[in-house]
Amino acid sequence: MLAALWGFGRRRRGLRFWVLYTLKHSPSTGAEIMDEVERMSFGLWRPSPGSIYPLLEQLSKEGVIRKRDDGKYELTEKGREEVESFLNPVFPPFSLQAPRSVDGVLDEISAYVSYLEDLARTKSDSLKPYSSRIKELAERLSKL
Length: 144
Hints:
mainly alpha; two-stranded antiparallel sheet; WH-like_DNA-bd_sf; Tscrpt_reg_PadR_N; WH_DNA-bd_sf; Transcription regulator PadR N-terminal domain-containing protein
């Protein structure tokens, strides 16, 4: 029943709804959107950076949202129209698929880096305890 309601397994279709619905209420960073989706799902689901950031990029290209200078995303008129069309009894499905190719893994890594950049911009002290680990990962990646 829960899987049918949330639509687990269908790539990002439901997440699109949650992102637009969140932005309907206020401009937000990717990290804030992830927090809000987790809150709205009562902690049952938290989208990964690998889902959020590629979707934000896609929505920007479609002209549904725009990224402001402060790093927050906001709806365009086209986005407001789309979110209003979603507000009906049918919930679009969610996605929980893992990447299945090198391209998919690289997209996922890129999305996680975007998430860390968001945190660095909005909560600058939050990454300090992880600086050595981040450097270690960067070194490992540079050796590939």
